[in-house]
Design brief:
The chain is about 40% helix and about 20% strand. With about 140 residues, it is an alpha/beta fold. The chain has one domain: CBS-domain. The strands form 2 sheets. Strands 1-2-3-4 form a 4-stranded mixed sheet. Strands 5-6-7 form a 3-stranded mixed sheet.
Length: about 140
Amino acid sequence: MPVGNLGPDEVVTESRDSTLADVTEKLESEGVGAVVVTEDDSPVGIVTDRDAALAIHRNDDVANLSVEEVMAEDPATIQEDEEAIEISRAIGEHNVRRFPVVDEDGSLTGIVTLDDLVATIGEQLDNVAETIEAQSPNYSP
């Protein structure tokens, strides 16, 4: 299954000149764990709920911090036509849980997470289990 078929249809985004208060409001209202920072439809950063929490310990006036001060710049991305198993490789290579999905022009088309990978593997394992049970009626886990 291509990466572009996973994750939410809409990606929550902000611009570099937004504040951390804008981001945390979106994190709460949209029920997501990350906001992708875009410029000309391309991801240039990402702010996670963890980034927001850690900013509290480093700054006195957290709400007025700019997104640019908090975001992880130049986030690792995954091409939308890559197979879902590439999420696992990317997690190992970049040590992050979330990846903006981009098209061949580098424009943001989605976001995938470790959770999407786990759910996809779970679905595949269900298919395998059904095949085993169908071919081995006396099998009982």
